[in-house]
Write a structure and sequence with these properties.
Structural class: alpha+beta
Order of helices and strands: HHEHEEHEEEH
CATH class of one domain: Alpha Beta
Largest sheet: 6 strands, antiparallel
Distance between the termini: 69 Å
Length: 173
């Protein structure tokens, strides 16, 4: 019985530990900085800050902090919660029953994507760095995990939308 309980515990934990597709582990700090940073010519910090705010709001983010003096923006939005697979649900059920309800694996009830952007002036333009972090919380609001998003496609899409916002602002559209 003890071996069965341990096997079910291992199975349940492995079923809950899969990373979402937008998160990749093992990127070095230099690789992360390269993903998160772009330079834009022919614009200034106020215009870039306005474009970043527009980009984030268009993508469903709620702005939490916007400091023009620092060129800093922090925004959040809800991310979809991926439920466990059928096998994961069965393993969790048996783990809970086998441990008499003492071991209940936590599942995220809320996932939140946080974007933090920093804009700094440089000669002839601006440098923009945006980092994305995925937070998972349980039904009581306790943080279960915090993972930095290092998927290139996420940053490419964000900076493409930012570039469009800059263009629209320049053309007064």
């Amino acid at each position: 019985m003890r071996r069965l309980a341990l096997a079910l515990l291992a199975l349940a934990l492995s079923a809950c530990a899969s990373a979402p597709p937008a998160v990749r582990h093992g990127a070095s700090p230099l690789e992360r900085r390269a993903l998160q940073t772009r330079e834009f010519e022919g614009t200034d910090v106020p215009a870039a800050l306005s474009a970043l705010l527009s980009t984030l709001q268009d993508d469903g983010y709620s702005i939490r902090v916007a400091d023009a003096a620092l060129g800093l923006v922090t925004a959040t939005r809800d991310a979809p919660v991926e439920g466990p697979s059928v096998l994961g649900k069965v393993a969790r059920f048996y783990l809970t029953v086998a441990s008499y309800g003492l071991l209940r694996p936590k599942t995220p009830a809320v996932r939140e994507l946080e974007a933090t952007g920093r804009i700094e002036a440089r000669e002839g333009g601006v440098r923009v760095r945006v980092s994305l972090v995925l937070r998972s919380r349980d039904e009581h609001g306790q943080t279960l995990s915090v993972e930095e998003v290092v998927e290139p496609a996420a940053y490419q899409a964000l900076f493409a939308a930012f570039d469009r916002s800059l263009f629209l602002a320049r053309e007064a559209l």
